[in-house]
Amino acid sequence: MQSPYSVKDINGGSNIEIRDTWAATLGEAEISKQKISEIHTLGIQLGNDGSYLSQEEVKSRTSLLATTGLYQDENSANDITDYLKNQANVVLSRFNTITNGLILDPLGAQFEYKDTKFEITSVGEDSIDNLPTGKINEKVLEISNLNIGKNQEVQIHYQVRLNTETDDFKTNYWYQMNGETTLTPNGSNPDNKVNFGVPSAKSSGINLTLEKQWLANSENIPEKVELLIGRRSAQISSDWTKIVTVKEDGEWRSQLENLPKYSILGEEFIYEIKDEIVSNSEIYDWITIGEDKTTIANIEKFRLQLIKTSNHDNKPLSEVEFVLKNSQGEEIDKAVTNEKGEILFDKTRLNYGEEYQLHEIKSPGHSL
Questions:
Q1: N or C: which end of the chain has fewer CB within 10 A?
Q2: Is the pLDDT score of 242 beyond 90?
Q3: Are 238 and 332 members of one domain?
Q4: What is the pLDDT of residues 9-20, one digit of tens each?
Q5: What does the pLDDT read at residue 367?
Q6: Are residue 176 and residue 229 in the same domain, yes or no?
Q7: Cβ contact 341:307 at 8 Å
Q8: In the chain, how many domains are there?
Q9: What distance in Å separates the CA atoms of residue 362 and residue 368, rounded to the nearest whole number?
Q10: CB of 202 within 8 A of CB of 224?
């Protein structure tokens, strides 16, 4: 106010000199405080009033306009800008349900991230201009700077894989996909946390029937055989193996139950017999039968035995020498007939499916 003025006293007294409007302004401020929760006041480059109030008196009276503790005095443009930004954040925080929130989402022990990529999308009725930020640190997804108000929603997408290839994996068992997942709604109150529900996932299993067949002399068939089972998928060859015992009194059958059906990549496992452990293994060949390779047949490597007779009188010939050669024409055994004309290549077992050549190289008293 440039200069004081006088007003009439309604009670009949002398005129009242009004030197400023502080009384009315402070009175209105007090009435407003009773109606609303708080008043914030910013004093900008305050000085004396050029009349009777010093700078400090002006600041003191201006501070009375504000709710206690909510007055601030600034002089520079930068300080004023900082104040206004801070007040804007305060106002926005009053409208947001979540302010500077934080999500911690640890991955479940039986799962692995497909990669380190994730996507944060605004999907609510009202879009969010400044989406939160995130990072994956080891096995924890952290989403920070989360600000969400009415009709706003975010979705967070990432992909994981169920590790079906650990030794202790159980099929048809619900594994929690995450550890304790929490939301801190207000960054200024880190102790206030809310738990998310945690989803679970499982993988189906298969049962594998293994069978042993024999094509051998009964006296050479053992009581039991150990089969080495392996598995693979379309893209991965696995080191996984398991030994299964099949026995004569079990009709040479055995079953493996609840084996994982899928690999960690989601590809279907192929189980097959890789090898066998059997006594007298040197006298057998083995092959798998069928497309699934879960039936194994042992074929005894037979020894060659024959009788040499004369084509004149059909009598046995002794001292006749023979050489046995493999399909490459290499000599692998040699034997001589006895007095009954019999010969047995007892040092050599013949491999199933392979061709052999028998050559007579000496026949006393007879021409070759």
A1: C
A2: yes
A3: no
A4: 677 777 777 777
A5: 66
A6: no
A7: yes
A8: 4
A9: 8
A10: no
